[in-house]
Amino acid sequence: MAATVTPEAVEKxxxxxxxxxxxxxxxxxxxxxxxxxxxxxxDLAELSxxxxxxxxxxxxxxxxxxxxxxxxxxxxxxxxxx
Amino acid sequence: MRREVVVTGIGAVTPLGxxxxxxxxxxxxxxxxxxxGEGVASEFEPTDHLSVKEVxxxxxxxxxxxxxxxxxxAEAGWDGELPYDPARIDVVIGTGIxxxxxxxxxKEILMEQGARKVPPLSIPLMMSNAAPAALSMRYKLLGNSFxxxxxxxxxxxxxxxxxxxxxxxxxxxxxxxxxxASLTPLARAAFAALDAxxxxxxxxxFDARRDGFVMGEGAAILILEDxxxxxxxxxxxxxxVRGFGATSDAYHLTAPDKEGAGAAAAIRKxxxxxxxxxxxxxxxxxxxxxxxxxxxxxxxxxxxxxxxDTEIPVSSTKSAxxxxxxxxxxxxxxxxxxxxxxxxxxxxxGYEEPEEGMDLDYVPGQARQLRVNGKPAIGLSNSFxxxxxxxxxxxxxx
Lengths: 82, 398
Fold this sequence. Notes:
The structure holds 2 protein chains of 2 kinds.
Chain A: H1 7-17, H2 41-55, H3 61-66, H4 70-81
Helix pairs in contact in A: 1-2, 1-4
Chain B: E1 5-14, E2 17-18, H1 20-28, H2 46-49, H3 52-56, H4 60-75, E3 89-94, H5 100-113, H6 122-126, H7 130-139, E4 145-148, H8 154-167, E5 173-180, H9 185-193, E6 218-226, H10 227-232, E7 239-248, H11 261-274, E8 281-285, H12 292-306, E9 314-315, H13 318-321, H14 328-342, E10 344-345, E11 368-369, E12 377-385, E13 389-397
Parallel strand pairs in B: 3-4, 3-5, 8-9, 8-12
Antiparallel strand pairs in B: 1-2, 1-6, 1-7, 5-6, 7-13, 10-11, 12-13
């Protein structure tokens, strides 16, 4: 049963997931780019899996390429779910 | 003109602790790293040495290699700046079964939760070339990098092939060694099913009561350099890689040739390659697995080459740490170098009861001074692997 998709819920999921990839919590914001956070394509593949688990939303290869910031990721998940 | 090859840095993670000197000091003091029938690298805490991201991006076998690599690189004086063109520095690392722990976890998730839950990092973590890949990235080395796979001779194979690259001018330096982290449910069960493991959980190589090997884990990394270039930059030299001999038994998938013919041929090749004679050897670090077959065949091989009545001390590091499989040859090369440097034969722990026909000096009880008599301290390190791979390194302490 997928969780209800709200921007707040998705933001919380992503913010809670990022530290396991070695990101400092204090560096995370909507505007932070994944490049600056040192989150690369392998991390995004794992993050996509976490999002799919939680919300049933699949992010495919091309999608991941378009995501630059934490906010982009949140918006894309919310849009897809809607 | 073949170039001389020297060792300028060593590092190790073993069941006796983190650090090459820790391994040497504890083994020579008679300390065993085996507990409850296994040699676990229990003092190794990944996050003491590596970042969260580095730990997440590496199977345990690669983590061992990175930590041993950092120690070796620092000792060689490479941690500030690389001393040579990075395109002329290679990486060659052996492993027996690579990231088998990652493989097992991925398979569990696949079976229990389905294909969509399999971690995307499964393949890059489990691949047997993950350790050399990680080290080339870590130290920004641009030369030839790859893994060597030859079961329990992989670590020695790595060093031997690495030395060749420098000797023949393909590289000026090589980061080499071996790594293994296979204390996993599948590997344990499979080795046990083969009847290879010691049911008593005791590693006592060459003893009449030996009943199989004890599994261990860890890594050793060595920095090899062209001797002339190392001298030019004023590097401290720990040892010379004098010779490398490798042969195949072409006999059996797991059992050694009963007469040790392939092993003896590898010892002969290593001597020939190093330009030394049997009487030049002052110490042999045996493969000495504590299996009934290996220790008997290896004894025959040593006697066939070094003489039926040879008095050269022969001891097995596996008596203190168990069998580190694809890391064993590299860890034991490090142990051999430090033993030769200190002019010490560390003991074969647990050796008490001789077996008929096995009458080498296995260094029972405690470490003993090596008799060098003013000659160079030259020793052999033997490694033999499932599949009939035999590798012998001839090393000289400087």
